[in-house]
Each structure stands twice: as structure tokens, then as C-alpha cells.
Predict the 3D structure of the following.
Amino acid sequence: MSPILSFKSLAPIATLIVFWFIPAPEGLSIEAWHFLAVFFAVVVGLIVEPVPAALVGFTGISVVALLGLMGNAKASISWALSGFSNTVIWLIFAAFMFALGYKKTGLGRRISLVMIKYMGKSSLGLGYAVAFSDLVLAPFMPSNTARSAGTIYPVASNIPLIFDSTPDNEPRKLGSYISWVAIATTCVTSSMFLTALAPNLLAVDLIAQGTGNTISWSAWASIMLPLMIPLFLLTPWLVYVIYPPTQKTSPEAPAWAAEELKKLGKITSKELLMAGLAILALFLWIFGKEFGIHSTTAAISIVAIMVGTRVITWDDVISNKAAFNVLIWFASLVAMAAGLKKVGVLTWIGNSAEIHLATMTPTMLILSMLLLFFVLHYFFASTTAHTTALMPIFLAIAVKLMTPEQLIPFSILLAGSLGVMGIITPYATGPSPIWYGAGYITQARWWGLGAIFGAIYLAMIILGSFIFI
């Protein structure tokens, strides 16, 4: 076993042992402190990943249940499995089936090619074609890795090659521009829609647990869309100005896209059905409350229709490892986060923070928390780990120090920043390693661009605090 693997394996165990034997701080019970020790070990495990992340979370709830930190045996197992009955978790699972439908029918690839055909006559147009391809898919794909790396990348990565732009030959000609537009816009769309990033949905569930406020799809949109739409429209142009391609026109790209569309043939009935079901899902996510239909009910019902109409098969559903991996992963993390409140850790954090932060003005408190939450992502290689580790703590402080009127928009802005913060490093969000690995952008350049665009994106979140809070 290599030293690195050994460290990865031992780090969570060492964290658990160290915190377990530190005396519990005043105001916390022994059980609460021991639960917090397991929670810290899970977070470290999510960061270093000695085993798959889902197994880290699953092991965490198992350890807590075995140790009886939630009470008697029945109470412990009820808590451990509580995440699997969470409606948000099943909404995420259903959305993975939507992504599968886009891929299997070929609709996702067709959308990207159509965008390139009609918008790709210039390099700037190609940037917008890549951006709008992501935008169309974003509301229905909670995995930005599946969306950007799995759907957009296979199409967009072929474009620079038409112009002989490769990582080793004139990367700035077009490849660097396309790569940065792709990752920058997927970060924006990840914040734009509640269902565009799985950690958004996890964060919303933590908001419900921590504040008692339920954030709907439309409530999210009412704050994030006014902020993200201008940012989305500006991003390809900003990249064109800050990190311009040397190739300004691209007449070959539309011709290539048209040829690829010919190979796909005419749009199929299953593609049309997939498009119709996606539109229906979006309609019900926005307006379903008016008809007494829960968003998760709408999602799983449409998945059933997708299987019944053979858009996807039942074998596709039960063999989708990514979907079941996320189901187990997030269900475990939801239970762990709920446990923080159940054992009294969040109340203790809120009371402690109140003493130190009560002298700050409301404006300074809000700005400081948004800034800190964003910047701390430099230390995380997983948005999910970031959400699990920090969201409950920040919400516990906010509940103590903010008015109910401030709390809801602040919570949405805090959760909404999870998408855009993915721009700051080559490891900050799922698709980043794929686009970085394409080789068009050096590590030093990526960190520099990440700092510039991270500052712009953070500024928009902070502007939102002045508008909505």
C-alpha cells in the first residue's frame, strides 16, 4: 500500500479517535460530542475519499447506530435509515433518470449540435452555443458532471480539432476558450436552477431541517434567476474578453455539426416524447403546488411514464450505478446532518456564535458569512462535502442572529452559491477535472482564471444580498 493510500485510509479513523477522547466542551453532552467526532471523521473521509464517498456516509450512520448515540437500538436504526425516506433524495434519483433519458434517446447530443449549427459561425457564437446547450439541459440534470462532462464535453471537444487546435498545438486558437466557457457556464447554470446541481437539493433539505423553511423550485428561481441570467449571458463574452481565442471565425463548425446531425437522422418519436416529459416535469416543479402535486411525486411519476413508454427500460433504472450511488450517499449525509440537530450540536453552535457575533451589524454579518462560505470552498474537492460540513453550521448561526424575513433569502443565496463556487479551482466541482484534463488550460492559468471569475460570481451573490435581504 502506498503512503498516500495509507494516509487516506487512516485520516478519518485518526480524526474519530482524536476527537472522541477530547473532553466534551461545556454545554454539549458526551453523546453529542461523540456524534460530532463521527461527523468530523465522515467529513474528512469525504474530502480524502479512501473509499467511495457513498460508503463513507453509509459507514458513518452505521457507526452512530452501532454506538447507540441516538438512544436505544430502535431509535438509532430509525434515525440511520431516515434519509432514505426523504423526498429530496428521491427527487435527485428521479432526475438522474431524466439525464439517462436525454442520453439514451440522443436528445442531449442533438440539442448541442443544433446549437452549434445555428450559432457557431464565430468563436464567440460557439461559446454561446456551448453555454445554451448546458442551459437547456440544466433544469433536468442534477449532476453537472453528467451534463457538462458527460453530454457537452463529447460534442464540444471535437470543435477545436476542426481548426487543428490541440493541447500541444495552438491551444489558445480555440480549445482553451471553449474549455473555459464550458466550465464557467455550467457553474452558473448549476446555481440558476434548484434541480441543476444535486448539492442544491441537499442544501435545501438542510435548510428545512435547520430553519423550518421549505424552499420550493419557484422560490429558488425568484432569487437566483434574476442574478444568474445576466451572469449567464455575460460569461461567454467575458471569457472572450479576458481569455480570448486567437481564432475569431469558425465557418467549419456549423458544417461539422450539420454533418453530425445528418448521421443522427430525423428526430425520433422517443426524443420528442423525452422533450415533452421534460417540459411537463418542469411545469409541475414550478406550478405543481397549485394542483396539489409534490415535486417529487411529479418526478417519480414521470420516471414511471418514461419506463412504461420505453424511453428508458427498467433494466436501465436498476443498473444505473450513479443514481443508486447518489441515493445512498445523500441519504446517509441527510441523516448525519439531521443528527447534528437531534443531539443538540447545532443549538450549541448557535448559542456560542451568538455571543461572539451579536455585535456585528446585520449587513456585515450577512456579507461575512456569504464571503466565508464561498472562500472556504478552496479547501474542498467536493461540493457535497462542503454542503454537509458547513451548511448546518452557517444556518445555525443565521437562525440565532437573523430575522425570519432575512433568513429565507439568505438561505437561498448561501445554497445558491454552491454552483458558482465550482469555478475557483481545477477540483472544485465534478466536471472541472474533465475539462482541466483535456489539457487546453494549464494549472496556473486555471487558478488565475478561477480567481477572476470566482470574484465576479461572488460579487453577484453579494449583490443579491443587497437586493433580496
Q: What stands out?
A: The chain has a mean pLDDT of 90.
